[in-house]
Design brief:
- The structure is a single chain.
- 29% of the residues are buried.
- By secondary structure, the chain is mainly alpha-helical.
- The protein contains 26 helices and no strands.
- The radius of gyration is 58 Å and the shape is elongated.
- Component of the Golgi-associated retrograde protein (GARP) complex.
- Keywords: Coiled coil, Golgi apparatus, Lipid transport, Protein transport, Transport.
- Its main location: Golgi.
């Protein structure tokens, strides 16, 4: 803190000076003294009481001696001496300043006294002159009073005659104004005469009033014509409305009619024509390089919008405070634009067409915004463009979904001439692969054009567009999976895009299911990773999700879904093929009476049908599924051979036993022995390979055959017929199924089950069995060559 010479702080000095002046100029010293009692207890006394009017010197000294030592007292003495000196100096300066002010005031009073000395004489002279002028004025007024009254009377008469003459001349003057189209002058004349017509129009000036009203009617019609005329300037039309208001014409009716005319313009405006956007946008040019639309429809549209904007401007000037109505009308124009755009999007347009439509809309928005900025059409257009771009992206993915569906659905129908049947599924699969890869790439290129254009609307929606494309691909693969599941009867979806795809009228073929299974694997392993990379390049430097959520299409989220569907389709294919074979087997075993079956002479034709089914399955599977890298369950001397030898031993024993009961005992013994054999794994895990699928179908078919056998009762001939068919299958099915041991085991189980259900289970002799089998093999080789 800054300190003065005496060692007293400046703020302390100022406070003491203020207290000093207050005590000096205080009107009542006793009141301030009474505020502090003198007998205040020393317990509450402080050294600061020296600055109050209730200062007690003895109490202060006692307190000072109690609180300070000798050095402190000496220091306090020096400080107080300095303060006393400063106070004396300040008081002296205060007296000097007041003295100077008193001297200055005295001098001012002397000068005023000297200046007023001669003023009284001048005021007396002025009063005498004013009195003289007043007396002469009274004399003039007295002499001219009678003439002034006469002149004023004549003047009033003259004015009245002028008004009467004006009323009589009004019809003629109105006709002249009509001929010269001076409607403003005519309205001014008529409104000036209106008070007189209201007062005397039904008596003295009846004819003049009638003629004037007829003229005003003509003027009113002329002014209405000017208001509705598009050739008139906006200023002229606004003046016409103002003149009509002065004539007390109901202008609100005009306002309604003009607004209806503007509304009718929107009704008549055709925005659905493709010619409007033809030639208007080149996606390879920037907006500054684009030429003016050259189609006749586009030129006519621009001219009509300019006329509409001009009409809006005129309406706004003519009818004040009409901005809310006009804003609603302008927003309806933008809304109608985007409704037409939505219809075009639903009809499958490309990005160039969408860009042309958005550019046309933005041009109209700018034209309207110049005359009606209150409508905020830019924000309105942005909201509608938000919906339009999103609908376009959704529509593009819907087209892609239908394109893939149409490509894959060729596997549902019989191939045309010139296309081999065994390659029809492969053709459909290749078409589906091309559709998903090339279609996705084309879609991204199409979407890229939306980002590359320097359009104000699309620039504001750039980040959102990137997010919509990412989300679109994610939803696309989910919808694709849902459609496939729905197609195969395994799903239930309410997706609009999926429901819009036409479902095949016939039941889905097994070949198409196999194509879907292989296609799902392709999508999971190839398509999604590739599209993810392309999408990352597409989304670089944009999108709202990049800042916190990353890409919307996450392979780790989508691939398991597609993979699961692929497995579902593969199991469904096996189920469908197995069910078809089961129907064939069921017809075979339910049609004849096996108890009365005749002696077998050849292999039954159902075996040929069964082999034909296996052949068709092999053709379908081999053209789509890959081969297994290694073979499993080849024939060995363990499990499979044990079961096969057991069946052979059973057959030999039955040939040597003439007694049926002994044969049944041997069957029981064989069945008990089977329980103690090493357990064989019949159904292994299904793999996505040719061998695994075919072998699984064969196993399931043989298992179904075994179950059907257990439901029948056979005589000896029936049993021998089954034995012959199974023996023939053993010789032919080894070229079809991979797991020979398990297949032989299942075939032996069929024979065992048949023997268990046979009344007289005596098998054919081996020479006879071999002869019949060998006789059938060449025919089968010709009908079903090994592929």
């Amino acid at each position: 803190m800054e300190v003065e010479e005496g060692g007293v702080p400046l703020d302390e000095k100022a406070r003491r000076m203020r207290d000093l002046l207050s005590s000096f100029y205080s009107p009542d010293h006793s009141a301030s003294a009474a505020s502090l009692p003198r007998n205040t207890s020393s317990r509450f006394a402080t050294l600061d009481t020296i600055n109050t009017t209730a200062f007690d010197a003895d109490q202060y000294m006692n307190l000072l001696v109690q609180k300070s030592n000798v050095e402190g007292l000496l220091q306090k003495h020096v400080e107080m001496a300095a303060e006393i000196k400063n106070l004396d100096t300040d008081l002296q300066m205060l007296v000097y300043e007041n003295y100077n002010k008193f001297i200055s005031a005295t001098d001012t009073i002397k000068r005023m006294k000297n200046n007023i000395v001669g003023m009284e004489t001048n005021m007396e002279q002025l009063l005498e002159k004013i009195t003289s002028v007043q007396s002469r004025s009274d004399g003039v007024n007295t002499s001219l009073f009678e003439r002034r009254e006469h002149i004023e009377k004549l003047h009033r008469t003259r004015n009245l005659l002028r008004k009467v003459q004006f009323i009589y001349d009004l019809p003629t003057r109105l006709e002249k104004c009509i001929k010269s189209e001076a409607y403003a002058e005519a309205v001014k004349l008529y409104t000036g005469a209106t008070p007189i017509f209201k007062a005397y129009g039904d008596s003295s000036f009846q004819d003049c009033k009638r003629a004037s009203e007829e003229a005003v009617t003509i003027i009113t019609k002329k002014l209405q014509g000017k208001v509705f005329s598009d050739s008139e300037s906006i200023q002229s039309r606004a003046e016409a409305v103002m003149l009509l208001k002065q004539l007390d014409f109901p202008v609100e009716n005009l306002k309604v009619k003009l607004f209806e005319k503007l509304e009718q313009f929107l009704v008549d405006l055709n925005l659905e024509s493709k010619e409007l956007t033809r030639g208007s946008v080149d996606v390879n040019k920037s907006p500054k390089q684009e030429s003016v639309p050259h189609s006749a429809s586009a030129i006519a549209h621009e001219a009509s919008i300019r006329e509409f904007a001009k009409a809006i401007r005129a309406y706004k000037v003519i009818f004040l405070h009409s901005e809310p109505q006009l804003s609603k009308l302008a927003q309806d124009l933008v809304k109608k634009h985007f409704e037409a755009t939505h219809l075009r999007i639903m009809k499958q347009v490309h990005s160039g067409d969408l860009l042309a439509m958005l550019r046309l809309i933005w041009t109209d928005v700018l034209l309207m915004d110049e005359v009606l900025p209150e409508a905020s059409l830019a924000d309105c257009a942005l909201q509608y463009a938000h919906v339009a771009v999103r609908d376009y992206i959704s529509s593009a993915f819907g087209r892609l979904l239908r394109y893939i569906s149409d490509s894959l659905m060729t596997a549902q129908f019989t191939p045309k001439e010139g296309i081999e049947e065994e390659y029809s599924l492969l053709t459909a699969l290749d078409a589906g692969k091309k559709a998903v890869t090339q279609g996705s790439t084309d879609a991204l290129l199409d979407f890229r054009q939306l980002l590359d254009q320097e359009s104000e609307l699309l620039f504001r929606l750039r980040d959102l567009t990137i997010d919509w494309v990412q989300e679109g691909f994610r939803d696309f693969f989910k919808k694709l999976d849902g459609y496939f599941l729905l197609l195969s009867g395994k799903g239930n979806t309410t997706s609009e895009d999926v429901n819009l795809i036409e479902m095949p009228g016939d039941k889905i073929s097994a070949g198409l299911v196999l194509v879907l299974a292989e296609f799902s694997i392709f999508v999971e392993q190839s398509a999604i990773p590739r599209i993810t990379e392309e999408l990352a390049t597409f989304s670089s430097g944009g999108g709202v999700r990049d800042h916190g959520h990353g890409l919307a299409l996450v392979p780790a989220e989508i691939c398991p879904i597609i993979q699961s569907s692929g497995e579902t389709f593969l199991h469904l294919y096996i189920k469908m093929r197995t069910q078809k074979i089961s129907v064939l087997l069921k017809k075979r075993f339910t049609a004849p009476n096996w108890v009365k079956h005749k002696e077998p002479r050849e292999v039954h034709m159902f075996v040929d049908m069964l082999l034909q089914e296996f052949k068709e399955i092999g053709i379908e599977v081999k053209q789509l599924l890959p081969q297994s890298p290694h073979h499993k369950h080849r024939r060995t001397n363990s499990n499979g051979s044990t079961a096969s030898s057991r069946s052979s031993a059973l057959r030999d024993d039955k040939l040597s036993r003439p007694n049926i009961q002994k044969g049944r005992s041997q069957l029981l013994e064989s069945h008990l022995a089977k329980l103690f054999k090493q357990k064989m794994e019949i159904f292994t895990k299904l793999e996505h390979t040719q061998e695994s699928v075919i072998t699984t179908i064969v196993k399931l078919s043989l298992k179904s055959l075994q179950e059907l056998v257990r439901l029948q009762t056979f005589n000896r001939s029936g049993f021998q017929q089954i034995q012959l068919d199974i023996q023939f299958l053993k010789a032919t099915i080894k070229d079809i199924a991979e797991d020979e041991a398990a297949v032989d085991f299942l075939l032996d189980e069929v024979i065992v089950s048949t023997a268990e259900r046979c009344l007289d289970p005596i098998p054919l002799e081996p020479p006879v069995l071999d002869r019949l089998v060998q006789a059938k093999l060449p025919k089968t080789s010709e009908q079903n060559p090994v592929s």
